[in-house]
Amino acid sequence: MLKAAIRAVETGKAGLVGPRLLHSMVPYDVNRAQELIARYNEVKSSCDAACEKAGVNREVLLLAVSKLKPASDIQILYDHGVRHFGENYVQELIEKSKLLPQDIQWHFIGGLQTNKCKDLAKVTNIRYVETIDSLKKAKKLNETRVEGAPVILCNIQINTSDESQKSGLSNEKEIFELVEFFLSPESKNVQLEGLLTIGSWDSSHSDDPNVDNADFSTLAHWKSKIDEKFGINLKLSMGMSADFKQAVRQGSSEIRIGTDIFGTRPAKADAKII
């Protein structure tokens, strides 16, 4: 696959990768393609090994977090077969969505302001908004979704570490009200997919990956409580570079990896889409 991708770039047919004919929209550098595909494959292998070790029989999505990285990096991985990308900033996601193939499934994983919900809802191929932390935001996404566009799958963000600087809900009444909205007839354009958390730095950098991460245990507890009360089966989005092995073992269906795939990010002021 890697050799095919590089050869395709060199011959000007970057869309021809493996058995599929893909249509590259953004040009990219051959050397960068080789580096990036190798890094992605290494991370994917580590994820697969962690799943095998934990005896996981569910699908675990490796979400490539592409925030502050150029559209060309995303195009490289797209041509390698990747379709799920995570972005943290609304305007950056909007601009990238205009440049890149429309069958990309964008995940918004950053802090979401209520006044940005309408802008995000207009992106036809936004598929997931994973950081819903208020009923108001869920309703705004629902009300402003582009007519005819796919339903947006949503995660409720839970603050499992009780850190004041982190977003997310921890109040049972607010969490249950949000779940009730997602399950109501009113919620036609948004659908509850699962729960998301970002573990504390200390928990996420434990020396022993075989010791349970306390924040992940808390999220799993919330899943059990909500599943039992509402008769549903939520997914969990937890785990990044430092703690994905714990996350997989503790029930995550999605791990969010950025730097290990794309390399060190530039400062936001220096980031360029093109």
TrEMBL record:
Pfam families: Ala_racemase_N. The modification N6-(pyridoxal phosphate)lysine is found at residue 67. Its cofactor is pyridoxal 5'-phosphate. GO terms for molecular function: pyridoxal phosphate binding. Pyridoxal 5'-phosphate (PLP)-binding protein, which may be involved in intracellular homeostatic regulation of pyridoxal 5'-phosphate (PLP), the active form of vitamin B6. Belongs to the pyridoxal phosphate-binding protein YggS/PROSC family. This is Pyridoxal phosphate homeostasis protein.
